[in-house]
């Protein structure tokens, strides 16, 4: 612990010296001479790391390993169908990435161009990301669970001229019509010139001649060598969309050098990664967790990274452990929602499978409740494997707060201590910095080199969202407590962002989808605690005059939201409301709606500032009846 504390202090007190040394964990084409240039002002925020260095992320994740470990498996893919597996060595990965990069280049893609990727969890997803990185093209991966409309919005925002998809995805024994969704999305994206289609299944799909290209046809004739484009450290690597408390999803932009260094360093230390480990992060590459801990972190460190196409409960709730057993997984990283779902299925599904290869268990995406933590530790890990609760965000790029295995004492439910270079600060509503034992809003004074640089196309929103409220600090949107040992306990979002099964959603987005329906006059969406999903979605909906409050309409609204955003955004509960509780200035009182959704009708608090307190009484009657 002393050595760790010393190293941490060094990272905060002498960041330039610390990071100059740590950044050598990646290969630089032109070495940097400057380390850290950060300017956080009221009107301008400029974050630059290693600014005069050049490198290529794909070279670092692939090429540099070919000589030393060309025959080692880089990507260990397990398909949805049990036993269906593919092993891609670093040498093979190099060839596959170069061929696709050459293919993309033949379509006119180069430095700075955006490419949207809408793929299932197949090796081609990682290969596409790396091929973009090789050319200096900026990838924007869109989670395969998003609808055509959500996909279109993201393609339009990033302005991709080329997109990559698959005919279908396969998950939990079911197919997902990815190409069909892409076709629909592209109807509103006339600027997209080419659509590359991976054939994941044998199904035939609609084809637009001249626009659509089979992946295999594209790469078939291409050379397996492709010179990487040497990028400036601050050139963009990717854009990834995430939900905020207001407006449409934000295109979080990450750059090359700092992000890659942060990925490699955190992957090594937080998971105690060592040569020979089999590392499995169960996230989807459509989320930042997949970017940093399936692709960039593990591959930068020359690891074997497992990629799983399916779901934890199919065909049985033993699936995760079977994969761990079959492939000898040593480090396993998943989300509390999956742990809780499997915990509910019973210990026998875990116990009957050998898990002796496991060494480290990680958790990410939402607060892990102590009960789930203990089950993960005792049943899954047999009390042998530290549970590493990692707190971070799409925006921070990499892990910010986490225990270090074998070093930090573990407290179930706490993400423990800040990682190297990370300086958390707790503040109160008025922006006063809180010292010692305290609970407040979590800000970061420093977040290391992996943090986002801007919101694509909207730098003003970047400053407004993260830097305006507390001058000089990055505001995370989370509430947090610091205990007597200086350990951090994340208490959850304090804004209108909800976390459903580890998926981040803005309540405003779901409200927007609901009010787009012709029958809906007004809608307010809040989260409520759910034992498995973390949070569920409760929508209060006011219909237009003359519309009937029917079960059929309820179903129609759920489908309507699914078509606009995706299945993850479908409300669990739709409650009809003749009116919504509003203050005299017209603001919806969400605090009251949250209590109603929780069924805590006795704790509504002061409703005297409402225009019409009777509105609450009517909603509370329904809540009471439901209890
Ligand atoms: C939000 C970020 C980090 C990659 C996956 C989610 C919540 C994340 C934890 C944790 C408590 C957590 C926060 C955060 N969150 N990890 N270990 N303990 N809360 O990334 O979709 O950008 O969501 O997820 O509320 O702000 P994301």
Automatic annotation (TrEMBL):
Superkingdom of this protein's organism: Bacteria
Record organism: Neoaquamicrobium sediminum
Modifications after synthesis and translation: Acetylated. Deacetylation by the SIR2-homolog deacetylase activates the enzyme.
Name of the protein in its database record: Acetyl-coenzyme A synthetase
PANTHER family: ACETYL-COENZYME A SYNTHETASE, ACETYL-COENZYME A SYNTHETASE 1
Binding positions for CoA per the UniProt entry: 171-174, 289, 501, 562
Cofactor(s) listed in the protein's UniProt record: Mg(2+)
Sites bearing N6-acetyllysine, chain numbering: 587
AMP-binding enzyme C-terminal domain span: 509-587
Pfam families for this protein: ACAS_N, AMP-binding, AMP-binding_C
